[in-house]
Amino acid sequence: MSLSLSLAEARRLALSAQGFVRAPQAPASARQVRGQIERLGVLQIDSVNALVRSHYLPAFSRLGDYDVGVLDELAWGKPRRRALFEYWGHEASLLPLDLYPLLRWRMRRAADGQGIYRQLAEFGRQQRDVIARVLQAVREQGALGAGSLSTRTERAGPWWDWSAEKHALEWLFAAGEVTVSGRRGFERLYDLPQRVIPAAQFEHAELDEAEAQRRLLLRSAEALGVATARDLRDYFRLEVGDTRLRLAELVDAGELLPVQVEGWKQPAYCRGEPRIPRWCRSSALLSPFDSLIWERERTERLFGFRYRLEIYTPAHKRVYGYYVLPFLHGERLLARVDLRSERAHGRLAVHALHEEAAGLDEEALAALAGQLQRLAAWLGLPQVQLNCPSALGKRLRPLLL
Q1: d(Cα 8, Cα 246) in Å, to the nearest integer?
Q2: Tell me, what DSSP letter sits at residue 246?
Q3: Mutual orientation of helices 7-17 and 296-303 as an angle, nearest 10°?
Q4: Are 272 and 3 in contact (CB under 8 A)?
Q5: Which residue pairs, CB below 8 angstroms and at least 24 apart, start in 158-167?
Q6: How many Cα atoms sit within 13 Å of 66 on the Cβ side?
Q7: 3-class SS at 339?
Q8: Interacting residues of 12 by C-beta distance below 8 A, sequence separation 6+
């Protein structure tokens, strides 16, 4: 059986699966935050802190005001209170603990230097003495950062100019021989997984690769609502060949249903008979690394919205700005907002506003003003400051007073 969906139906199905059906009504509880993260299955971590660390934003976008300390406790708190762990999910990620057994095969591949881990494995083959020394230090001391282990004497260069000890920790992390026990600022602190991951997950019986990959694809399908093979593969960064085999198996077993979406060239899939909401009424500012929009080609297919990061683009070549958040209103992405937290001045700075071709009517503009004010309040910033003299900025300004 193959289903057919209009583009509008696919869009509502995707928004519903990602938690964007209705506007939040009150500050979110710890249970709601945990439930939302488990629903998404993965939070991407990124080092840019122009606004707030990216992994904090998805819960705010869906739930509104919440205590970020709740997420910190879920990710890096005392072991008995943890519900998340760090690993390579969709890039560097926070993942629900029940996914730990589903990623052991990826750890084995990393240790063996298979697939995407070939370059890292080269270090593993050549620097076994460094790896052994670093692992022994973690075993004896625990919760160590790369800086405390480094033996380099020259000054580190920019970005990925890692010491040998940092390379060793990254190899051990990918191979599952250490995990992240906490963070000092943004620096990872590494420890043995048996001292961090609860026994129920760490000692879980090994799953074979095929079964683990099938379960990851099903989680992707649940989180995305409706998705092509590429969308499903990208969610947990599975490989093309693995995905092709596992999708065929899941379709044959009736666990994924083929779907034809209006305007999509590739076939799509749903997790069972889709329940499509009649409307979606959320308004939200989205992190550039939000799982609703991180697969840029999918974002174009669903919303007709071409989105690219310009963080690493020279300032004079940027079209929209440095740290640009798409604005979701109802079922469309209607604008782009370049934002910065200017903490020393106590303000949320709006450096640029760009509306899409559909435009912002007065109701949508009021919703955007409300989102900016709520975001500023959540960040503890008393003021929203408009630094853009555009016509759209002039329309927005009175709504922020």
Answers
A1: 28
A2: H
A3: 130
A4: no
A5: 164/127, 164/130, 165/130, 165/134, 167/123, 167/127, 167/130
A6: 24
A7: strand
A8: 276, 277, 278, 279, 280, 331
* Residue that has been written with the tokens 């380099």 in this structure: 152
pLDDT of 160 reads: 43
Single-letter residue type at 17: A
DSSP codes joined into one string, 4-47: EE-HHHHHHHHHHHTT-SS---SPPPHHHHHHHHHHH--EE---
Whole-angstrom Cα Rg for the chain: 22
380 vs 108: CA distance, rounded Å: 43
Q: Could you give the 3-state DSSP secondary structure of residue 212?
A: helix
Q: Tell how strand 257-261 and strand 268-270 pair up.
A: antiparallel
From its phi and psi, is residue 359 left (phi > 0), alpha (psi between -120 and 50) or beta?
Answer: left
Place of tokens 């939302």: 36
**Phi and psi based region of residue 64 (left: phi greater than 0; alpha: psi -120 to 50; beta: remaining):** left
Mean pLDDT by 10 residues, the chain (401 residues): 90 97 86 96 96 97 96 92 95 97 94 73 82 94 83 47 82 95 93 95 94 98 98 97 98 96 97 92 96 97 96 94 97 98 97 95 97 97 95 95 83
Instruction: Describe the crossing of helices 68-76 and 30-40 by its angle, rounded to 10 degrees.
Output: 60
Task: Tell me the C-alpha distance between 348 and 341, whole Å.
Answer: 5
Structure tokens at 298: 């999918």
Query: Do residues 382 and 345 lie in contact, with contact meaning Cβ atoms separated by under 8 Å?
Result: no
The type of residue at 370 is G
Whether 280 and 23 have beta carbons less than 8 Å apart is answered as: no
What size, in residues, is the chain?
A: 401
Only one residue has tokens 């160590």, namely 144
Structure tokens at 58: 């998805």
Strands 324-329 vs 332-342: parallel, antiparallel or unpaired: antiparallel
- Cβ-based burial of 271 (10 A; exposed 0-12, middle 13-18, buried ≥19): buried
* Under 8 Å between Cβ of 42 and 300: no
